[in-house]
Amino acid sequence: MDWGMKNRLNRIFKPEDGHTVMLACDHGYFLGPVSRLEDPRKTIEPLIPYADALMLTRGVLRNCIDAKYNIPIVLRVSGGNSIIGKDLSDEGITVSMQDALRLGVCAVALSIYVGAEHEHQTLVNLGKLINEAGDYGVPVLAVTAVGKELEKRDVRYLSLSCRIAAEMGAQVVKTYYCEDFEKVVKSCPVPLVIAGGPKMKSETDVLEIAYNAIACGAKGVDMGRNVWQSSKPIAMISAIRSIVHEKASAQKAVELFNSLKK
Ligand code: 5RP
User: Fold this and answer.
1) I need a surface site. Which of 39, 44, 154, 193 has the fewest CB within 10 A?
2) What is the mean pLDDT of the chain?
C-alpha cells in the first residue's frame, strides 16, 4: 500500500488502537432535510471535536463546514436516487476524483445494493471508483446499503455483501450490526465499521450494539441518526467513544451517557 493511502487510513483509524468514531451526516443525499439535520452546520459543528472523521456530501462540506477544522473527511460520492424515487439502488458515481481531491478528502464512500434491482450497476460503480481512487492513493469505503428493506440485515446477507465489497477491492466496509456478527467480521478481510440505522428506542440499545460490534472485531462505528437525533448528541458520541477507544463496557458507556446528559 502506498504512503498516501496508508496515511489517509491512519488519519481515519487512529494508529493508537486502529479504531475510529466516524460521524455519518450524508443522509441528505437521498433523504433531503432529515430530522435534526435540517440545518447541517448547527447539528454537525458541536460534534466535530468528538468525531475522528466526518462522512458527508460535498454540498454540505462546502457550505456548512468551515475549512478551519482539521478533521478527516469521508466523502459520499454515490447518489442519483431519492427516498420518493422508484428504487434506492439506482445509484451512480456523482463526484469526480478531481473534486474529491480538491476537497482534501481522506476517503470516498459509495453504496452497493447486493440483491437489489441495480446490484450490477452499484458493484460496477464500486470497481470503477476503486480504480480511480487507487490512482490517487484514496481509500474507498463501501456501504452495504439495504435501502428500505431493513429486514435484510442478517448474518447471511451482510456476510455476502461485505465479502463482495472486500473482494472488489474496497479498503473499508461499512455495514450493520447483526446477530452472529463475528461471522461477518471473520469473512471480511478488510476493516469493518458499523452504521446505526434508524433511531433506536433507547441509547442503551445503541451502546450495546456498538459494544458488541467492537467485541466481535469491528474497527469502529460510522453512526449518524443515533447520535444527532439523540436528545443529548454530545453525551451520546462521548459514550460511543468510550467503547471504541477506551474499551468501556456497554454498562460503563451507559453510565457515562447518563452522567453527561445532565
Ligand atoms: C446512508 C449512509 C449513512 O451514512 C448510514 O446509514 C449511517 O448512518 P446511520 O447511523 O444514521 O444509519 O450510508 O446510506
Assistant:
1) 39
2) 97
